[in-house]
Amino acid sequence: xxxxxxxxxxxxxxxxxxxAKKLNVMIEANGSELGDIQKNALKxxxxxxxxxxxSSFGDAAEWQKKQPEDRDLPLL
Length: 76
Description:
This protein is an all-alpha fold and 76 residues long. It has a domain at 1-49. 47% of the residues lie in helices and 0% in strands. The longest helix has 13 residues, at 10-22. The protein starts with 9 loop residues before the first helix and ends in a 6-residue tail after the last helix.
């Protein structure tokens, strides 16, 4: 017999795993499926990412402005 349980509560999962071990039940974890709550949390984490330090490459916009000035284009 196979039983599938889904939960976002880590404490509940830990209790279920402890009970299954006590009853000598085989446990097979499948973490490949993300629930809606986990998907939204991951999306918010990505969208709200803020770098802790400035880029070591400097200002990309300033580099792009200077780049065309540094080279001569061939005349056609």
